[in-house]
């Protein structure tokens, strides 16, 4: 049965109204040129707490971003309710280009990499000299991740009243890594806190370390209580009432010049995502010597040109040993 006549006009065609409005679909996305700039402070179950114009604002990722995820430290653009009031929610519509990325995998066989923090300037590896015993292989892995991600490493050695730092410092002396040694008494008196703070001023620093090394205790000493309360909005998201380091959290330094990112304690630091060819960039004295290396050289094989480069006196042999020790850390277990 014909519904319309032989000479049908377009006005005769019945159309169903669009329930979601009459605006046609378009692949052109809004530019959000009026979006406000912000920084992600923490992420919890799809909700992101951001610092926007001095206020903490709860936000969610806009659908138009697809699978692209924002992480702690990301610089983002937000629209919507930016008042920071209770029960309000903004939208993150853009994630700005990152200057650095700290990544890790669960283990060396896990292909899924997790971004721990973005846009950090340095990575503070916190290690106790005793109780628990230091784990050099875990330190090596953290250093490799820092070099690969574009972060400068910093060693923070705690509990020097229980053991001497000399042996550990000798192990990393050829890497020219800045370090701070603290004791429990110095931490309690505030002397150690000031020494650590000197290394953090003007920078965004991510703190990593396994449980029991005093990482969170140090972070709490660095960040005054009133500034931790400023991000109390974060804790309301989790419903725990206080931060227990189950997810990364960015906190402002007391002097207003720098940020500390407290991360959950790690049991392992997988490096499945690491490209060994990028680690050499952290050794500028050795990098020119790779010009004669065969393609895809691991820098730890018979044909590596670095051996001849060092033998000719262009670099210290200890530096080449340190590079190869770091590159080989993927082949060793953390507890070795």
Provide an overview of this structure.
There is one protein chain. This protein is of the alpha/beta class and 336 residues long. It has 10 helices and 13 strands. It has helices spanning 136-149, 166-172, 184-189, 191-200, 215-222, 225-230, 232-238, 276-279, 306-311, 317-327, and strands at residues 36-44, 47-52, 55-61, 75-80, 90-95, 101-105, 113-118, 122-128, 152-158, 179-181, 204-208, 249-252, 259-262. The protein has a 6-stranded mixed sheet. A 5-stranded mixed β-barrel has the order 1-2-3-5-4. Helix 2 links the parallel strand 9 and strand 10. The model is unreliable at 231-244 (pLDDT under 50).
Instruction: Give the averaged pLDDT, no decimals.
Output: 83
Which strand order does the major sheet show?
A: 10-9-8-11-13-12
Report the span from N to C terminus: 82 Å
Radius of gyration: 26 Å
What is the strand content? Answer: 15-25%
Number of H/I helices:
10
The helix-and-strand class reads alpha/beta
**Helix residue percentage:** 10-25%
What order do the SSEs take from the amino end to the carboxyl end, as H and E?
Answer: EEEEEEEEHEHEHHEHHHEEHHH
SS elements, strand count:
13
Could you describe the largest sheet, including whether it forms a barrel? 6 strands, mixed
Uncertain runs are: 231-244
In one word, what is the shape? globular
């Amino acid at each position: 049965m014909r519904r319309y006549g032989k000479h049908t006009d377009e006005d005769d065609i019945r159309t169903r109204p669009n329930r979601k409005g009459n605006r046609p679909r378009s692949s052109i996305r809004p530019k959000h040129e009026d979006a406000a700039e912000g920084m992600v402070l923490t992420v919890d179950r799809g909700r992101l707490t951001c610092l926007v114009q001095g206020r903490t604002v709860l936000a969610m990722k806009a659908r138009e971003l697809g699978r692209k995820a924002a992480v702690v430290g990301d610089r983002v653009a937000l629209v919507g309710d930016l008042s920071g009031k209770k029960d309000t929610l903004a939208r993150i519509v853009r994630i700005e280009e990152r200057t650095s990325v700290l990544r890790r995998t669960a283990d060396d066989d896990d292909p899924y990499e997790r971004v721990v923090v973005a846009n950090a300037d340095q990575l503070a590896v916190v290690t106790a000299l005793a109780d628990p015993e230091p784990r050099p292989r875990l330190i090596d892995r953290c250093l490799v991740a820092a070099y690969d991600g574009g972060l400068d490493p910093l060693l923070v050695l705690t509990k020097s009243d229980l053991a001497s730092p000399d042996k550990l410092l000798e192990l990393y002396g050829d890497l020219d890594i800045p370090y701070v040694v603290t004791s429990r008494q110095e931490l309690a008196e505030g002397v150690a806190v000031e020494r650590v703070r000197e290394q953090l001023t003007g920078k965004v620093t991510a703190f990593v370390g396994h449980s029991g090394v005093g990482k969170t205790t140090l972070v709490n000493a660095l960040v005054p209580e009133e500034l931790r309360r400023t991000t109390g909005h974060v804790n309301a998201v989790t419903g725990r009432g206080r931060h227990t380091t189950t997810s990364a959290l960015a906190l402002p330094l007391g002097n207003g010049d720098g940020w500390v990112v407290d991360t959950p304690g790690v049991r392992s630091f997988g490096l499945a995502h690491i490209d060994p060819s990028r680690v050499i960039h952290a050794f500028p004295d050795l990098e020119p010597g790779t010009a004669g290396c065969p393609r895809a050289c691991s820098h730890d094989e018979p044909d590596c040109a670095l051996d001849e480069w060092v033998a000719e006196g262009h670099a210290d042999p200890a530096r080449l040993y340190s590079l190869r020790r770091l590159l080989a850390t993927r082949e060793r277990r953390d507890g070795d």
